[in-house]
Design brief:
The complex is a heterodimer of chains A (423) and B (290).
Chain A (H helix, E strand, L loop, with lengths): L1 H16 L6 H14 L3 H12 L6 H11 L11 H14 L6 H18 L11 H6 L3 H24 L1 H7 L5 H14 L7 H30 E4 L1 H9 L10 E3 L6 E7 L5 H13 L6 E7 L3 E7 L2 E5 L10 H11 L8 E6 L11 H10 L2 E6 L13 H7 L2 E4 L3 H14 L2
Parallel strand pairs in A: 3-4, 3-7, 7-8, 8-9
Antiparallel strand pairs in A: 1-2, 4-5, 5-6
Helix pairs in contact in A: 1-4, 2-3, 10-11, 11-13, 11-17, 13-17, 14-15
Chain B lengths: L4 H10 L6 H12 L4 E4 L6 H11 L4 E5 L6 H4 L1 E3 L1 H14 L3 H8 L5 E3 L1 H7 L5 E5 L6 H13 L1 E4 L3 E4 L5 E6 L7 H6 L1 E4 L5 H11 L5 H15 L9 H14 L6 H6 L1 H4 L3 H9 L1 H4 L5
Parallel strand pairs in B: 1-8, 1-9, 2-5, 5-8
Antiparallel strand pairs in B: 3-4, 6-7
The chains are: A alpha/beta (423), B alpha/beta (290).
């Protein structure tokens, strides 16, 4: 059984390399699972999936790797499609557990042969890290490796081409909900600067469940924060009714601090997707703040509102103007000074790229002084902060916190953290 | 008792649960490896049903813990019966018992109110424990479950650690209202149950609503799986499909044409937008338009 164990170990290593998180405990589960169901291919497939894949989004990766590692013995080499069917069923029948031990070993051996035939141990593409590959300076070896990889992928493709109905039967294609969940998760991780209009539409579709989840998260946290220290008087009074036994503890209710939120979102250029999604996410969580005032800006400030899921701004902004956050800060201080109080949290979403116009970080400092907190969410990669025309370093010195929000997932975490500040 | 893989698929058939290789293997493994099974999937795809059917196959009791926001240990695990303890204390005082004697009494199992988790642990034989909609419970509760799920034991400070005589078969279900922690996922086997395919759903309809004409059942299954692909706010669950099939029987529908689809759509769709969407496409979707 050692060979199978090795094969499973390298299978798990390949899955890990493909980005699936698998713990040692789970790999032990996988071994036990295979021991329990036996070697019949379809069963082993499902057993390994149950033990290793804890997230339906990883299922496609798993299926692909499984087909690569545990190819149906001999079947994939067959050039005659009509012969293949019976070979597969024969092989599957042989692997059934509990018939007698020898055919099982036989099936195992042929699987192993198959694998060693097509994949020499030092050239397994999945197992090699890119670093290790870089160390391979010998050209010949590189070539051999790529040849192997090509042959390998040809093999997979070939099997897909003529084995379509069979594979579908073995591993049912993920259904509607599975693909939807996988899509939501994928879009949550797509960086905003890689967004296209199509991605944006998809993100909008995904937003409804996200908003609900976000609201639940906020609500729970705020509710927990509401119970404070023990209220001694009420506890004693309650105890009197029960002959002096301290049975019910009464807690002092913590008065919810009322927080106003002022949101400033840059809707120019590449950050516009991030800004719009943030505004929409926050619009869904409006109930948790006393007042939410949303603004968008490019070179001027405009009030933002949502009607039927569409962003409406007054006055309308020229989206292709040169961003000027310095002027926006000036307008905020002049016209909206009433909004900036001790109970206000200001959230700014933007990349701080100011086209080399005056940054006016001094105004930002004053706003920070007047308000409870100013938090900056930056959809740009931190590595690029402060490069080129970015004034983010100057702003970063003034604000209470600056948080990278490169994708929907980071954005949600950042927004939830802001909401909790008030608790 | 160890069940074989074949006994399980036989049992599922007897319990009239239509399923596939994936579900059978996962259930078998959960029993064979004595690991909890985490089932995810859309609402109404039959996740909870798995636990019920499993209890039926094992001829045992199903203990169900319905999770909700704010669920705490007192509700899930155990609680001391304060009233009974108080009464006992008062009675004890009159008898002139000392505190040591008294406390031995009032912190014994007699004064413990067993909630589902403790009940499952202390059950004399193997039971099926269903922790339903774990995603609705708070994260703290999830963390608390970890001890239970890995060792099947519970610590009660006054009594010490209680260990399961017979490990219960644990099924957890989740609708993904939130992400579950990695730690929990690691301890469970995982199964994703999606809506059934057309063929499978037809089988389910035929099994559960035998009055419906076979041809009509096939058409109904095809129609339902078509509208699930429309991206509705709430795609119809299996239970709703079955209700709809029963409605079709009651309405005496012979052919699933556009009108027949329209009359009973309320059974299938519970949102006005969804309804409008499907009605506008009803003629294209209905198997027979004439």
């Amino acid at each position: 059984m050692a060979a199978l164990r090795d094969q499973l170990v390298s299978f798990i290593a390949a899955l890990r390399a493909a980005g699936v998180r698998i713990s040692v405990a789970e790999s032990i589960d996988a071994m036990n699972a295979v021991a329990a169901v036996g070697l019949e291919r379809a069963r082993m497939h499902e057993a390994l999936a149950a033990a290793l894949i804890k997230d339906e989004a990883d299922r496609a990766t798993f299926d692909e790797s499984f087909n690569r590692f545990f190819a149906a013995p001999r079947a994939n080499r067959g050039e005659h499609p009509d012969q293949r069917g019976e070979q597969v069923s024969a092989a599957a029948g042989r692997g059934r557990p509990g018939e007698n031990p020898s055919p099982r070993d036989d099936a195992l051996a042929s699987t192993r042969d198959e694998k060693s035939l097509s994949l020499p141990p030092e050239a397994k593409p999945a197992k090699k890290t890119s670093a290790a590959r870089r160390q391979d300076t010998e050209k010949g070896r590189d070539e051999e490796e790529s040849k192997n990889a090509r042959r390998h992928s040809d093999r997979i493709r070939g099997r897909r081409d003529n084995g379509e109905p069979e594979t579908r039967e073995e591993s049912p294609t993920p259904g509607i909900d599975a693909t939807r969940v996988a899509r939501i998760r994928a879009i949550e991780r797509t960086p905003f600067d890689k967004f296209s209009d199509l991605d944006y539409d998809e993100a909008r579709d995904a937003l409804a469940p996200l908003i609900r989840r976000f609201r639940i998260r906020l609500g729970r946290r705020l509710r927990l924060a509401r119970t404070g220290r023990i209220d001694f008087r009420r506890t004693i009074r309650a105890a009197l009714q029960r002959g002096g036994a301290l049975i019910d503890l009464n807690f002092r209710a913590r008065r919810p601090r009322h927080v106003d939120l002022v949101i400033l979102a840059d809707i120019s250029g590449s950050v516009r997707y991030a800004a719009q999604l943030m505004l929409e996410l926050m619009a869904g969580a409006r109930g948790y703040f006393r007042r939410v005032s949303s603004f968008v800006y490019v070179d001027h400030l405009a009030e933002a509102d949502f009607e039927d899921g569409h962003l409406v701004m007054t006055p309308a902004l020229d989206l292709y103007a040169r961003s000027d956050f310095g002027r926006v800060l000036g307008e905020l201080c002049e016209r909206r000074i009433g909004l900036l109080t001790r109970g206000t949290i200001v959230v700014i979403m933007g990349d701080g790229r100011n086209n080399r116009l005056p940054a006016r970080a001094d105004l930002l400092r004053e706003i920070v002084r007047a308000c409870r907190a100013v938090v900056w969410l930056n959809p740009e990669d931190p590595a690029r902060w402060g490069t080129g025309d970015s004034a983010i370093k100057q702003y970063a010195r003034e604000v209470n916190a600056i948080v990278p929000s490169r994708n929907l997932r980071e954005l949600q975490v950042a927004l939830a953290a802001i909401a909790w500040r008030q608790g | 008792m160890m069940l074989t893989r074949e006994q399980i698929s036989g049992g599922l058939k007897r319990a009239r649960y239509v399923t596939n290789e994936r579900v059978e293997t996962a259930i078998f493994l959960a029993l064979a490896l004595e690991k909890p099974l985490l089932i995810e999937g859309p609402a109404g795809a039959g996740k909870t049903e798995v636990a019920k059917v499993l209890a039926e196959i094992l001829h045992t009791e199903l203990i169900r813990l319905q999770c909700y926001e704010g669920l705490d240990e007192a509700r899930a695990l155990y609680e001391w019966n304060y009233q009974k303890q108080l009464l006992r204390m008062q009675a004890g005082e009159q008898q002139g018992l000392r505190w040591e004697e008294l406390s031995e009494h009032i912190f014994s199992r007699d004064y413990l109110l067993e909630r589902p988790l403790l009940k499952a642990i202390t059950a004399p034989s193997r039971v099926v424990l269903l922790i339903d909609e774990i995603d609705k419970a708070d994260e703290e509760f999830e963390a608390f479950l970890l001890e239970l799920l890995s060792d099947f034991q519970i610590s009660v400070p006054e009594l010490g650690t209680l260990k399961a005589h017979e490990r219960p078969a644990v099924i957890l279900t989740s609708n993904r209202a939130r992400e579950l922690s990695e730690a929990l996922r690691r301890r469970c086997l995982h199964l994703f149950i999606d809506f059934p395919g057309t063929e499978q759903e037809r089988k389910i309809i035929e099994l559960k609503v035998p009055e419906l004409d076979a041809k009509l059942a096939a058409e109904a299954a095809r129609f339902v799986s078509a509208i699930r692909k429309l991206g509705l706010r709430k795609p119809p669950s299996i239970a709703e499909t079955l209700d709809w099939a029963r409605a079709l029987v009651r309405l005496g529908v012979r052919e699933l044409d556009t009108d027949a689809v329209r009359t009973a759509l309320g059974v299938l769709l519970k949102h006005e937008d969804d309804r409008a969407k499907v009605e506008s496409k009803a003629s294209a979707l209905a198997p027979r338009t004439r």
